[in-house]
Amino acid sequence: MARQGVSCRAVGAGVMLGMALLLLSFPPLWAASPSAVQSPMPKPPADLPPAPEAKPEIKSEDKADPKPEAKPEAKPEAKPAPAPASAPMSNEEMERLSKAVSERDLKAVEKKLEESRQEQKALQAKAEALAQEIDSLQQELISAAGAAQDTEENLSDLEGRLSGLSEREKTLRNELSSRDTQLLEVLTALERQAMRPPEALLVQPMPAADAIRSAILLRSAVPQLHDMAGTLRGQLQELLALRKQISSQRRDIAREGAKLTKQQTRLNDLLTRKQTLQKSTLEASDAATKRAEDLAASASSMRDLLDRLEVERKRREDEERKRQQEEARRVAALLTSKPAAPKPPEPVVAKADPVKVDPARAEAPKAEPTPPSDPAETPRASEPAAELQTASVVTSPAPAHGKSQKLRSFEELRGQMPLPARGQITSHYGQTDGTGPTQKGLVLKTRPRAQVVAVADGVVAFAGSFRGYGQLLIMEHSGGYHTLLSGMNRIDAVVGQRILAGEPVGVMDDSDGPSLYVELRQDGQPINPLPWLTARKG
């Protein structure tokens, strides 16, 4: 039994020694270089007792019951050597790998950035083409509106001439009618005198004085009859000429009317096309229009409305400025951003090796990505500012107006500002009828469905109904000036829209002799618009 116990202890010690040798045979995974794999196997600690050699069991011949032979203690079989683990990469290898990953990511970012730039260029080209088309369209609108107003003026002149001719015709006819009565009386008397034969004077003698008086009257009546006949003949000829002129004027009016109808149709088509091109702007203006209507509903007077519109304008400018600043920051960050440093790859361990590795010991040193050596690849500090206009096209809506538009100063228009519509001024600034309030603007009598245009470059501040003004259009100009137009049947402008001088903004109703109210204000106070208007006939 004692020998058997010794044998068991020997076997246990041998197993422990074998496991220790096996563990020590693995290369340390935290080694800094591949040379650590080939380091000599460490010797066992000195305090570990040597494993006793297994002695063969001595058989006892004097025992009848022999026990089984104790087999010699076999050393534990060596496990097959695991597949060698991949060696950790050196600092140089890690740096090369990190640089390769960094360059690959940088190229990917640059590729996306280039694609974005190409897309931005395409959008910019599209936006520029749209702006040019809007510019051209606005000029066509101005030209078409001017032509329509010229035709309206010609029609008014023709109709005025026709009215004068008709009045002259009526006068001539009345004169001819009265002369007919006079001639009829004279001719009747002459006819009676002519029907009396000379012999009758002998039968019915009359006083000599009466006979002389009758002869004198007849002698004086004959030249007068000649004069009356000549005048009558001239008036009849004039009447015939007037009737021809009236007929010609009516044909001209019909022709000009058809021309005006075509021009109005073309104007409507151009306005529809402009609204289509400015669809994004018109959609964006819905909120502004709603706010303007709310302001109008709460405003107590025109001055109050203008003050509220000024506050709203400043608020919109602040919002637009903040949006542009945010867009500039976003684009600048996009153009100056560097690719994030890639994480270095973790050391690959052979799948056949199930040994867990302490991450703290297995962590390899990180290598910083190397910036591109080519300066052209690195955005300079001045590049973002140069790219802002291009990059902003991605998120900014298409402009509501052409890029070449530059609103002219209102102060420069003194004495050059046209009337918004063709017609006659029936009431002047400061005029009063003695019972009502003093007039703060002009009242212009126009043709039915007359075209109304902007008198100067500006931005639409309000478009809609306001108290006693009816359909009201307020345009904001430079220098604190505002123009107010009311009395229109239709307004062809929206809040926030940039309008050029001469561009159509509305149409009068089709009643007989509609009136357009025109008011000019500076810093909210009404001023006389006459010094600003250009002289026109009539």
TrEMBL record:
Region forming the signal peptide: 1-31
Gene3D superfamilies: Glucose Permease (Domain IIA)
CDD domains: M23_peptidase
Region (Disordered): 34-101, 314-404
Compositionally biased tracts (Pro residues): 41-53
Alphabetic keyword roster: Hydrolase, Metal-binding, Metalloprotease, Protease, Signal, Zinc
Domain of life, per lineage: Bacteria
Cofactor: Zn(2+)
InterPro entries on file: Cell_wall_metabolism_enzyme, Dup_hybrid_motif, M23ase_b-sheet_dom
Keyword Protease (UniProt): yes
Basic and acidic residues bias spans: 54-78, 314-330, 353-366
GO term, biological process aspect, one: proteolysis
Residue ranges of every copy of the M23ase beta-sheet core domain listed in the record: 439-529
Protein's name in the database: Septal ring factor EnvC, activator of murein hydrolases AmiA and AmiB
